Amino acid sequence: MGIATASQTIGPYWHLIEDKDWADLTRFGATGDKIVLTGTIFDGDGKPCPDTCVEIWQSDPPTSDTFPGFGRANSDATGTFRLTTIKPGPVAGLGNAQQAPHIAICLLGRGLMAGLVTRAYFAGDPLNATDPLLSSIEDPALRGTLIAVADGPGVWRLDIRLQGDGETVFLDV
Asked: Which of 30, 44, 85, 118 has minimal CB crowding within 10 Å?
C-alpha cells in the first residue's frame, strides 16, 4: 500500500481561473442567444465568498470548435462571478423525460473538500414545471434556489448560498 497524498481543495490549478478567457464560452465565435450568468456566493453568515472557482458546463448547444460547453471563473472580492455563454435549450433526460434548459455549476474553494454541484434554470421557462429534477424538489423555496432570474437584457442572476437559511440545493453526483 502506498503513502497517501495530501488533499487539496483546488491547489496548484488556481491559475486556471485567473485567465479571464475561460469565463467566456463564446470566445471562439459561438453563435446563438448570448447571455451572461452572474451571481454572488454567500457563506452561512451571509458574507460574500471571494476566490471561489465557479465552473459551468452545459449540454446544449452541443460542443464544437466554436463552443466548448465548459468554462470557469473566480468570484471577486465581493463574492460575485460572471460567465458569458449561449443560453441552453432543453435536453433529453432519462426515458422520455425532457429537462428544462439549465447550466450545471460546480463550486470549488477554501474549506470545500469536494466540489459543490448545483444547477441554474431560467425563470419563466415553461419546461421548469415538468423538469425531472425541479419536480423532485417539493418545497417551492428550495426549488427557487435553482432558478436564475433576469437581471437586465441578456443577463441572468443566480445567487448561491453555501449553508444556512436559504441554502442553495446541491446535488449528489
From this structure: 44
Cα distances from 138 to residues 135, 141, 170, in angstroms, run 7, 9, 15
b/e burial code for range 1-15 (CB count within 10 A of at least 16 → b): eeeeeeeeebeeeee
Extents of the domains making up the chain: 11-161
Identify whether the C-beta of residue 145 lies closer than 8 Å to the C-beta of residue 133. Answer: no
Is the pTM for the entire model greater than 0.85?
yes
Q: Which CATH class is domain 11-161?
A: mainly beta
For 152: left if phi > 0, alpha if psi spans -120 to 50, otherwise beta; the answer is left
Biggest CA-to-CA distance, the chain: 57
In the DSSP assignment, the letter for residue 78 is T
- The answer to whether the beta carbons of residues 128 and 10 sit under 8 Å apart is no
